[in-house]
Amino acid sequence: MSIFAVTAIALLVSVAMALGRAILGPTAYDRILAVNAIGTKTVLLISVVGFMNGRPDFLDLALVYALMNFIGTLAVLKYFKFGTLRGGLSKSRPQGEN
Amino acid sequence: MDLVLDIATWILMLGGCFFIFITGFGLLRFPDLYTRIHAGGMADTLASFLVFAGLALQSGFSLVTVKLALIVAFLFFTSPTASYAIAQASFVAGLKPRLDGFGSAEDKNDKS
Amino acid sequence: MAYRKIYKRGLGKAYEGEYGKTLRIISLISVLLAVWLLLSGIYTPLITSFGIASCLLVALIARRMDVLDQEGHPIHLSPHVFLYWFWLFKEIVKANIDVAKCVLFPGKYLEPSLFASKVTQKSDLGKVVYANSITLTPGTVTVDLHDDTVLVHALTKGTADGVKSGDMDRRVTEVMGEG
Question: Is A70 inside any structural domain?
Answer without folding.
Answer: yes
